[in-house]
Amino acid sequence: MLELEKRLSWVYLVNLVFYIAPFFYINYNLIQYFWMTLALAAFIGCYYWIGRSHTTEMLLPIVLMALIASAITPLNYGSISMFAYVSFFIGFAYNFRQFLAGVVVLVAVLALLDHFFIKGAPYFLLYGSALVCAIGVLGVLDRIRRLTMLKEQRSAEEIKQLATMVERERIARDLHDIMGHSLSGIVLKADLADKLVQQQQYQAASQQLQELAFIARESLSQVRQTVSGYKHKGLTGEVQSLSSKLREAGFAVEVQGEVPVLSAREETAVVLILTELVTNVLKHSNGDEVQIRFSETEQGNQLMVSDNGKVSELAQGNGLTGIQERLAALNSTLEWQLSPSSFSFTLPKES
C-alpha cells in the first residue's frame, strides 16, 4: 500500500548493518562474498516489493525474505537481522493470532539453524528469538496505529459529508427564497403592466416593465452568486456520496489528496466519470478496498480510482466508451491496469 511504501525508506535498511559487518572482519572467499551479496540484493528487493504491495499480497515476499535469511545463515550469522524484518512484516500484515503463529515458526527455524549449522555463536538462538519477538511487536503496534488512523479518517470524512449536506440544504433554501421572492415580484409587475396597457396608461406601464427588468437582472445576479458558491462543492459532495455507497457495499474507502477546483464543464464530466468508475467497482470488483486519489502534476489534475480486486481481462462496454468520449472532449485519455485494477486520467491545465 502507498502509506507503507512511503514509510519503507532506505533509512530503515540501516538495521542490516549486523548482516554487512561480518563482510569486514571474517575472511570469506570470493564465492562466499558473491552469494552473500546476492542474498542481500534479493532481500532488499523483497523489502521494496512489500512496500508496493497491499497487505493481502505480502505473503509471497515475506516467505521469500525468510527463505533468503535461512539460506544465507550458514555463511553469515548476521542474518538474524533479516529475520527481524520478516517478523515486523508479519506483525504489520496479519492479525495477532496469525502473528503469534508466524513468530513460533520463525523461532523454530532459528532453532533448527542453530542446531545444524551454527558454530561459534552460542547466543544466536537467544538473540535471534528476542529480536524476532521484539521487532514483531513493533509491527503489530504499527498495524494498530494504521487501523486507528483509518478509523479517524473515516470519521473525519463522515463529518465533512454531513457538513456538505448541511451546506447543500442551506443553498437550496437560499435559492428557494431568492426565486420565490423574485418570481412573485416579476409576476406582480407583469400583471400590473398588462392592466396599465389595457387602460392605455403607457407611461406607467413602461415604468412597471423597467422595474420588472431590474428585478429580473437582480435575481439573475443573485442566483449566479449563489450557484457559484455551490458549484465548487459538487465534486466534493459526489466523492463523499460515492464513498458512502462503497462503504455500504462492504468496501474500505480511502480518499487521498485535495479535490481540485475545476470549471463547470470539467466538473460535470469528472462527476459523471467518477460515478461510472465507482459503479464498475460495485458491479465487478472482487476486492474489498478502494482508493480515490486526487493529485496535481506538471501536466494537470490527476484522478485515480483503484481497488485491490483482481481482473484477468477487461471488456470495454458502453461505460468505458462513454468515459473515453468525455475525456476526449477534455483533451485527456483514460489509462488503466489490471490485478489490482486501477483507472486514471489527467485533465490538462489548458483545458
What are the salient characteristics of this protein?
about 350 residues; alpha+beta; five-stranded mixed β-sheet; 12 helices; elongated
Description:
The protein is an alpha+beta fold and 351 residues long. 68% of the residues lie in helices and 9% in strands. The longest helix has 75 residues, at 124-198. The two termini are 32 Å apart.
What order do the helices and strands come in, and which of them pair?
Blueprint: H1 2-7, H2 17-20, H3 22-25, H4 30-51, H5 59-72, H6 80-93, H7 96-116, H8 124-198, H9 202-231, H10 234-248, E1 252-256, H11 264-284, E2 289-296, E3 300-307, H12 318-329, E4 335-337, E5 342-348
Helix pairs in contact: 4-5, 5-6, 6-7, 6-8, 7-8, 8-9, 8-10, 10-11, 11-12
Strand content: 5-15%
How big is the Rg?
Answer: 32 Å
Number of helices: 12
Order of helices and strands: HHHHHHHHHHEHEEHEE
Q: Name the shape in a single word.
A: elongated
Tell me the span between the first and last alpha carbons. 32 Å
Contiguous runs where pLDDT drops below 50 for at least 5 residues = none
Q: In this structure, how is the largest beta sheet organized?
A: 5 strands, mixed
Number of strands: 5
Strand order of the largest sheet: 1-2-3-5-4
Q: Mean of the pLDDT scores?
A: 83
Output the structural class: alpha+beta
Oligomeric nature of the chains = single chain
Indicate the percent of residues in helices. Answer: 55-70%
